[in-house]
Design brief:
two-stranded antiparallel sheet, 16 helices, alpha/beta, Spore Coat Polysaccharide Biosynthesis Protein SpsA, Chain A, 9-stranded mixed β-sheet
């Protein structure tokens, strides 16, 4: 039902708004959800007088939340806090480098309302067309029928998938499901077994009340994993909203520049969420993979980032925070590690990286190890 008040939280970082805001804004203005029932909160996450002025000029009806430290997880918390103050019931986390289908928001809400135990619903995320949107790709024309093409075939023609849910590896690596596959119709609201992409998902206020907001220690990257896993630990389902469509201007190399956060945070996922017995079972393969990642960092020139990860975990304060987080998660846990890890995968499948060592050595070893480990996890 279209009666829920929604907070849509979008984070700006430095010049992102100049690059991406106009099309994002226009597609939000075209939503078929009642305008008086949703509020856009733009968190200006490296704020300056210039960026604040630009945001207010470009998107006057959005509420601008200024922040200055660049912490993406904290920025989302700031947006959630602002939405709570305004009485919002559901909270949408969305990227700015996007264009939203006009049914995007209403379909997200229907997906999260379908079952009582759904805590998060993720949109179907498509890759933004490289050539942009052609007029004939936006709408059906009479020519389509004259050639005998079905509406379904026309609707899904030429688009590629970015994510129909994300997949989690047992060593904390995350990657998209369906990447670069042809778009297709998906019926119902299938469960996402891994985690919801932070590019576009909706979460209930009642769920946030139980799991808390973002863990700001993650800073950026794996923050969507952290939110999804807390939701699953608390006993909720994560669903795909296949008719809530968003087009994402995805750039893999943009993510790869943040190797420190990605490598550090995958360890945080394991240390935060796994029971101690599970960590001990996985310790040999964790060490083996770390040696491989160390070599990989030397070869590819990001050894400095890898050393910084080691420095982070050598701090007493880091382990104090990990202990506190583990205690908080233990209190909300509704499922054991058998069920929690059941759908984690053993193969690393970064579609953009073709690595023979990974394909022919590392992945086969991890498949065998995980098969044995799953029998030992309790």
């Amino acid at each position: 039902m279209m009666n829920k008040k929604i907070a849509i939280i979008i984070v700006n970082y430095k010049d992102y708004a100049q690059k991406f805001l106009r099309e994002c804004r226009d597609s939000l203005r075209e939503q078929n959800y009642p305008k008086e029932l949703f509020q856009v909160y733009i968190v200006d996450n490296a704020t300056s007088s210039e960026t604040r002025s630009y945001l207010k000029r470009m998107y006057a009806e959005a509420f601008v939340v200024p922040r200055d430290d660049g912490n993406y997880a904290a920025a989302n918390n700031a947006g959630i806090k602002a939405g709570r103050v305004d009485g919002c019931e559901y909270f949408v986390i969305a990227n700015m480098d996007t264009r939203f289908d006009r049914n995007w928001l209403s379909e997200l809400i229907m997906a999260i309302d379908e079952y009582d135990n759904v805590g998060i619903a993720q949109s179907k995320i498509l890759l933004y067309p490289k050539e942009g949107f052609k007029e004939e790709a936006k709408k059906l024309t009479s020519n389509v029928k004259s050639f005998g093409m079905s509406i379904a075939k026309e609707e899904y023609r030429d688009h590629k998938i970015n994510s129909i849910g994300n997949i989690l590896h047992f060593l904390g690596f995350g990657f998209t499901d369906g990447y670069d596959e042809a778009d297709r119709a998906i019926e119902g609201y299938p469960e996402i077994k891994g985690y919801a992409s932070g590019c576009s998902f909706i979460i209930k206020k009642a769920v946030l009340d139980k799991i808390g907001g973002y863990n700001e220690e993650y800073y950026m990257y794996h923050d969507d994993i952290e939110m999804s896993l807390k939701t699953r630990l608390a006993g909720y389902r994560i669903s795909l909203a296949p008719k809530s469509v968003v087009y994402h201007k995805y750039e893999f190399l943009r993510s790869m520049k943040m190797v420190y956060q990605m490598e550090r945070n995958r360890y945080l996922v394991m240390f935060h969420f796994y029971k101690l017995s599970t960590i001990l079972i996985l310790l040999p393969i964790v060490v083996l993979m770390d040696l491989g990642m160390l070599l990989y960092s030397i070869v590819n020139g990001w050894i400095g980032a890898k050393v910084d990860v080691y420095k982070y975990f050598l701090k007493i304060g880091t382990w104090r925070k990990i202990k506190e987080t583990r205690e908080t998660l233990r209190a909300m846990r509704k499922i054991d590690d058998v069920k929690f890890t059941k759908d984690f995968v053993a193969k690393i499948d970064f579609q953009e990286i073709n690595n023979p060592v990974l394909e022919y050595i590392a992945n086969p070893v991890m498949v065998v190890y995980w098969k044995i480990a799953k029998k030992l996890i309790r």
